[in-house]
Amino acid sequence: MQRYFVANELENDHDTLSIAGENFHHITRVMRMKVSDQVFIVFPSKKTCIAAITAINEDEVLLSLVKWLTEDTELPIKITIASGLPKGDKLELIIQKSTELGAHKFVPFKAERSVVKWDEKKVVKKVERLQKISQEAAEQSHRTLIPQVQYAASLKDLITLHADYDYVIAAYEESAREGEDSTLFHLFQTIQPGQSVLCIFGPEGGISEKELQLMQQINTKLAGLGPRILRTETAPLYVLSAASFYFDLSKNKNS
């Protein structure tokens, strides 16, 4: 069953729900749905329901509530993935797979060692494309929110956001080489449900010394992600997979 995010809440269970725009096109032209077909609808409040199509007009689909669902598909902590711009389509992969794994937000940034440079005139379109990838992945993985994408022009701009987070960590290659293996685990043991963490990852060339000094000014914790050196597109998935195991599987087993 298809899943769609809508912008407005359903104020009354007996109200008619209207879907237009891209979702209308997807329902009518891509999926070729008909009256009585059912879909999942996710509201801004993260509430989810099953709704049935009651009418298909020229520019909107009308639906009625079938039943409310009780869903708990989000991680209990809010993880923001901040990736130094990587080469090729790696950023798209990071956003797609990280959304499936439960990321809360993305902040791609131009790192000192990023080979890729975004034309300032094209930033808005690039972010829109990444946002679309995030939305499609959220629909596919039955998320109850769409992770937002926000661009930062440098690490300096990125760390100005640190006050919005309870914790800040950075995946640092040298920490892995030195055998550091406790920062991430300690974070999971310490962080409380509802709290947030900004996770910073360098591009292919890693984090520069200047960037390291900037991060240390805001008390960023450096984390080694196991004994192996991970690619820039693999490291965020490692962190999110570890979080999912710790909070979704281990906690449930112990409770």
From TrEMBL:
One Gene Ontology term, aspect cellular component: cytoplasm
A GO MF term: rRNA (uridine-N3-)-methyltransferase activity
Domain Ribosomal RNA small subunit methyltransferase E PUA-like: 20-65
Keyword field contains S-adenosyl-L-methionine: yes
EC number(s) per entry: 2.1.1.193
One annotated GO biological process: rRNA base methylation
Signal sequence interval, chain numbering: none
Chain ranges of the Ribosomal RNA small subunit methyltransferase E methyltransferase domain: 74-243
Compartments reported by the entry: Cytoplasm
Enzyme class: transferase
Main location as per UniProt: cytoplasm
Catalysed reactions, as listed in the record: uridine(1498) in 16S rRNA + S-adenosyl-L-methionine = N(3)-methyluridine(1498) in 16S rRNA + S-adenosyl-L-homocysteine + H(+)
InterPro entries in alphabetical order: Alpha/beta_knot_MTases, PUA-like_sf, RsmE, RsmE_MTase_dom, RsmE_PUA-like, tRNA_m1G_MTases_N
Keyword Methyltransferase appears in the UniProt entry: yes
Keyword terms of this UniProt record: Cytoplasm, Methyltransferase, rRNA processing, S-adenosyl-L-methionine, Transferase
Similarity comment text for this entry: Belongs to the RNA methyltransferase RsmE family.
Function: Specifically methylates the N3 position of the uracil ring of uridine 1498 (m3U1498) in 16S rRNA. Acts on the fully assembled 30S ribosomal subunit.
UniProt protein name: Ribosomal RNA small subunit methyltransferase E
Lineage: Bacteria, Bacillati, Bacillota, Bacilli, Bacillales
